[in-house]
Every structure is written in C-alpha cells, then in structure tokens.
Amino acid sequence: MLAALHIVAVLTVIGVPLAGMLAWARRRLPSDQSGLVDAIDALLPQTQCAQCGYPGCRPYAQAVAEGAAIDLCPPGGSTVQSALSRLLDRPAGAPQQSGPPRVARIDEQRCIGCYLCVKACPVDAIVGAPQLMHTVLADECTGCELCLAPCPVDCIELIDVPPPPAARPLRIVARPRNREPAAPEQPCIRCGACVPVCPEQLTPQELYWYCRDQAWDAAAARGLASCIECGLCNQACPSNIDLLRHFALGREALRAADSAAARAADARTRYEEHQAREQQRARARAERRAARLRADGGERPWQR
Amino acid sequence: MADLGFIFVGALLVNNFVLAQFLGLCPFMGVTRRYEPALAMGLATAFVLTSAAAISHVLYHLLLVPLDLEFLRIICFIMVIAGFVQITELTLRATSPLLHEVLGIYLPLITTNCAVLGVALLAIGQDLSFLETLVYALGAALGFSLVMTLFAALRERLDHAPVPAPFRGVPVALVTAGILSLGFMGFAGLAD
C-alpha cells in the first residue's frame, strides 16, 4: 500500500514540474508561422491570378503552410510544384500538363472603352482610359484570364505567345592560334589539375559535376556566377573535358532563373501598388458620397 | 581527469551509439537526406539527450533509490525525455518554422529514439557519478551529431554519384552506413 502511494507520489513529482515548464514554454514562445509563409511566397510566381482559388499568392502561401495542396498554381506549373515539394518535403503530384504561355489580346475594333478590364487586371497590364480604346501590354500580361469575365462585349481573348526569337548573347573565346585538334573527351578522373589554375579560386572540377548533372543550385552555391570563362581549366584538364562549355550552359541557366525571379518580384510590387490605388479610390468615393449626403441635409427627394 | 577523458572519447567514438551500438537508427536513416536538417536533428537530439540523462541521473539517485522504486526507472525516464522533446519542439517551432516543417514527425520521434533512453539507462548501469554521467551523455550526444552530419554529407555527395539504378537511394545509403560502421570499428582500443 505504501509502495503504491510512493509510486503515485514519484510520478506526480516528475510530472507536475514538467507540465508547468511546458505550459510556460507554450505561453512564452509564439507559434509563429510567418517565416514558412514567406519562404513559400518567395517560390510562387506572384502573378496574383487567383486561379488556385485563393485571392492571391500570399493567401495561397498561407494556405499551403496550413496544409493546402501544393499543385494548385497553374502559372507556376511543375517548376513551382517541385520547388514546393522540395521545401516542404511533401511528395510532388503528377506533373501538370501546362500548355504554352498565353496572353490576353483586346480586339480593338469592338472595345467600347468601359474601363472594367483595367480595374480587374492584377498586374496593370492593360492600358487605356475611360471612353477610349484599351490595349494589353503582352510583356506584362500573365495570362490569368481575370479580365475575360468583366468585359461586357467579350472583346478579350487569350492567344498563344509567339516564341521569342533566339537572341542568345554571342560568346567569343580566344584560343591559342596553333592549337592541336581537340582530342576526344574522357571521363573526369578527379585529379584536381583544374583547381590551382582557376584565377577566381573556384573548384572547376566540382562545378563541372554539378553542371553536368544540371544541379544549377548546387553549382551556384559553389560560385559558378563568379566564373569569368577564361578557359584556363580547359587547358589544364588532362581528360580534355570542355569545362567552359558546361560552365557557359550553367551560367545561362542561372541568368534565366535570375530574370524570372526579378520579373516575379516586379509583378508583386505592381500588384501591391494596384491594390493600394484601388483602396484609395474606394475611400475617395465613399467620402464624396458622404459629403453629398451631408450637403442635401439627408433629404431624399424621391421619398418626399 | 583522465577518467573523464576516457569516458568522453569512449562515448563519442569507440562505443558510438549509432555506429557501434546500433541505437537511434531511425533518425540516422530518416533525416540524413540533406545536410542542414541532419545537423539540426543532431543538435536537437543532443540537447534532449544530455539534459534528459542528467535529470534522469538526479531522479534515480535522489528519488527512486531511497524509495526502493528502481523498477520505475524506464517510465520515469521516458516522462523526462518526452517533456524535453516537447520543449525542444516548441522552441524550434517558434525560432525556425521552416526547420520544424522539414523535420516533421522525426522531431516528436526523438522521444522514442532508443539512443536517448539508452544513454540514461547505460549511465546508471555503469554506476557513473553525476559528473561522469554528464560527460558520458555529452560524448554520446556529440557522437550522434557527428555521425548524423557525416552521413548526411556522404549522402549529399552520393546524390551526384553515378550509382547503378537498383542501388539508388536507400540501398546505397545502407551500404554506406555499413562501411562507415566498419570505419568506426577502427577506433576500438582507443580509450578502453
């Protein structure tokens, strides 16, 4: 009997302070989710198209943080989906069938200048003024279809974006004049001969593995961006690997990713400014209305 | 002093809890796919392990032994461990929600990580003093973190290695773990 009492007493002595400590910790430490939401929001394309069913990218990021599906973003497609699945360690669903990118086009003959589509556009891609013809800036349009519904004369349609002309930057590499014909490439033997010659103190050998496997993120983390493409590693390589070609491809991929990120950030700012302007207009309208009501003394001529 | 050193190195390398005693294999295989989560998991487990072993030692000698209740030790230790795991989880959720999301279920599973309970029980089985228990637990904790980071680094490199298709993923990781364990056998005789 005494032993049983002892057992209860011991477990209480251990349990009560632990419970107290936990309660204190729970109160002191806020269960803050905003860091995660920021990280998710940064991956979303910021088109604010609401095709996911949430009013914008930030609300969708919040929903994902609370467990919503990660495959609801059509503009992001499988790229965003796989990035989210990496970030959250959740399985990526079947890759989405995303068609070619599309933009809106206004049939200017039929446009009546009602200004409704300009207000609906989340990224200010439609220019024009009331009673005048509107048109779409194809570079800014994200193809979100939000302008289709408000148009009273159905003069907006989505068209496929014509593929951009292949305007790749010209790259010129100076080579010694009497260079022997290129010997066949052999596998990397990890000799490290390329490391000491690199003027930027990179490890071309590692960069080469990552570029070959198209692990651009890993390559960027090892400083691929600071490669000056001098070609010294090419000459040092005993296996005759054209390291320069791999690095050039990698830097191209990094540049493409950078410009996509810049466009997304730009779209986000424009969306936020647009929201702020809309709110400002709504407030001004409400004030004018209130002033009008005050001016006529609250009388309703039609109710007299 | 030399004694403490022996205990420390013994727990850290020679009798490494993961690679020599095969305790705590669940996070060892589960959270070592990438380096940062593995390091965080190692440090979280290290914190829980050290504090739980110290508190368990005090409880055992001040409460359970005088009352002749030694048979309660497992349930008492588990309670202490579970409490510390909860505190760790709350702290982590407040300070780094991203890491919290990445570690996911493995964080509460520290409670059932047998290395944590193992250290507390083994320290009592070997009749260590409080200071010795602390050093022993610290060694075991650092050993666990060390192995986690080592293995995660190896697996990150394995991702880029040309592994034959049937071996990709877990199989080659298991083979790697075996070789790593063989390597740690080389420490035998270092501090015993």
What's the assembly state of these chains?
A: heterodimer
Low-pLDDT windows of residues of chain B: none
Helix content of chain A: 40-55%
- Could you spell the SSE succession of chain A in H and E letters? HHHHEHEEEHHHHH
Shape of chain B: globular
Ends apart, CA distance between termini of chain B: 15 Å
Strand arrangement within the widest β-sheet of chain A reads: 1-4
Rg over alpha carbons of chain A? 30 Å
Derived from helix and strand composition plus strand pairing, the structural class of chain B reads mainly alpha
How many runs of DSSP E, i.e. beta strands of chain B?
A: 0
- End-to-end gap of chain A: 90 Å
Annotation, overall tally of beta strands of chain A: 4
What level of helicity do the residues of chain B show?
Answer: over 70%
Order of helical and strand elements of chain B:
HHHHHHHH
Q: Treating each run of at least 4 consecutive H or I residues as one helix, how many helices of chain B? A: 8
In round numbers, the mean pLDDT of chain A is 81
Strand residue percentage of chain A: under 5%
Q: What is the residue-mean pLDDT of chain B, rounded to a whole number? A: 87
Strand content of chain B: under 5%
Apparent shape of chain A: flat
